[in-house]
Amino acid sequence: MSTATSLFTPFPPFSPLPKTTSKFSTTFRLRLPSPITTLRHRKHSPFAAFSTLPGGGNNSGGGGGNNDNGKGKGGSGGGDENAGDENRKEAMIVLAEAGRSMETLPKDLAAAIQAGKVPGSVIDRFLGLEKSDLMRWLMQFDGFKERLLADDLFFAKVFIECGVGIFTKTAAEYERRREKFFKELEIVFADVVMAIIADFMLVYLPAPTVSLRPSLAASAAVISKFFHSCPDNAFQVALHGTSYSLLQRLGAVMRNGAKLFAVGTTSSLVGTAATNALINAKKAVDKSSVDEIENVPILSTSVAYGVYMAISSNLRYQVLAGVIEQRMLEPLLHQHKFLLSTICFAIRTGNTYLGSLLWVDYARLVGIQKPQEEENPVLVS
Fold first, then answer.
1. HEC profile for 305-320?
2. N or C: which end of the chain has fewer CB within 10 A?
3. What are the beta bridge partners of residue 64?
4. 220 to 215, 225, 248: CA distances (angstroms)
5. How many CA atoms lie within 13 A of 327 on its CB side?
6. What are the extents of the domains in the chain?
7. What percentage of the chain exceeds 90 in pLDDT?
8. 3-class SS at 6?
9. Residue 131 and residue 98: Cα distance in Å, rounded?
10. Is the pLDDT reported for residue 55 higher than 60?
């Protein structure tokens, strides 16, 4: 302090100043926050996440690797390496605290840790899910494991969607058939079963994932490599150190659209074929019902339903899972699972009802249903 004062004195003092040692040099030390706490508590804002949508982001939500190393393409090499080191360090800290070793983990998850593709939050979620016998069994299947690691409520959402589907579709069948409901119970059963299969795929395919898939061989086709690098949900939050380009996110919409077209067309083919078979069998037994029930056009209905699922259902469920649930509700209500599940139930029920309204308009537009036949349409997703 005295030395600094002498520098601004206009004239030098008559006597030399005694040498002093600052007390602050030995009594105060700057302490930086521990890297462990910094790494373990990285969070993202549900609103700031939208600013990284075209190119992904370094948030710690669900996501997946998008190239051979699981590192983002949009950042610098040094930044990618740092993110991978941080992820690896986080994961090892979580394992150490849990008393687990890499050898006790599934091989694909251990490889992802070694490559720095997954942060400690994913490992923490895996260890929590392992405590449930049902979840531990489901995680033996790669598709379920990738989705549960991104969203620990994924199975609950499947149950919600299929449960809502069974109730609404059965109610709609009864509303449409009324006194003929029990006489045509076999037709109702076939319709509901195929609709539930479609509901399951609508939850499964667009769900955000933590990608643990190995990279494709260098000899793989360019198109295959591109779609392999795309996320499962176009709007999902990317893991720390991973980013998705706008083209990759559009690729996710196209890839899921193609899958849902196949699912919708196939399920409708099986459902309408089974329905027509039951109708024809009933006509053969009961001659009086020949003019009462008409066969459903199989090919046109199936293709139309496939197109509907590829476009309308695909986009609605992508937004529902990636934007509304993962980016908005999950960060705000993660510590309140019951409230989060309740809100998801309400939103998914509303989405199913919206889907039924859009299907009516679409079916009329393409001409596969006549207006007088649609007074009480079956709810679809």
1. HHHHHHHHHHHHHHHH
2. N
3. 211
4. 10, 7, 18
5. 23
6. 82-140, 152-366
7. 45
8. helix
9. 12
10. no
The contacts of residue 77 (CB under 8 Å, 6+ apart) are none
Give the CA distances from residue 45 to residues 57, 72, 162, 326, 338, in Å, rounded to whole numbers and listed in that order: 12, 20, 31, 11, 21
Number of Cβ atoms within 10 Å of the Cβ of 341: 16
Amino acid found at 344: C
pLDDT at 290: 56
Q: Can you tell me the distance from the alpha carbon of 236 to that of 325, in angstroms, rounded to the nearest whole number? A: 10
Helix/strand number for the chain, H first, E second: 16, 0
Tokens encoding 101: 């070793």
Looking at the DSSP assignment, which residues form a beta bridge with residue 211?
A: 64
* Token pair recorded at residue 323: 């934007």
CA distances from 37 to 52, 95, 123 (A): 25, 15, 16
Neighbours of 189 (CB within 10 A): 14
The residue type of 61 is: G
User: Which of 322, 309, 306, 315 shows the shortest CA–CA distance to 231?
Assistant: 322
Angstrom distance (rounded) from CA 206 to CA 27: 58
Q: Write the CA distances from 347 to 161, 207, 208, 310, integer angstroms.
A: 10, 15, 17, 21
Q: How far apart are CA 186 and CA 275, in angstroms?
A: 8
Question: Does the global pTM surpass 0.85?
Answer: no
pLDDT at 94 over 50: yes
Report the residue count for the chain. 381
Radius of gyration of the chain (CA): 29
CA–CA separation, 377 vs 124, rounded Å?
45
| pLDDT for the residue 213 | 85
Cα 289–Cα 276–Cα 372 angle in degrees, nearest 5? 70
| Alpha carbons 117 and 131: distance in angstroms, whole number | 23
Rounded CA separation 188/166 (Å): 11
Supply the pLDDT for residue 92.
Answer: 95
Is the CB of residue 83 less than 8 Å from the CB of residue 255? no
Residue 222 structure tokens: 């360019």
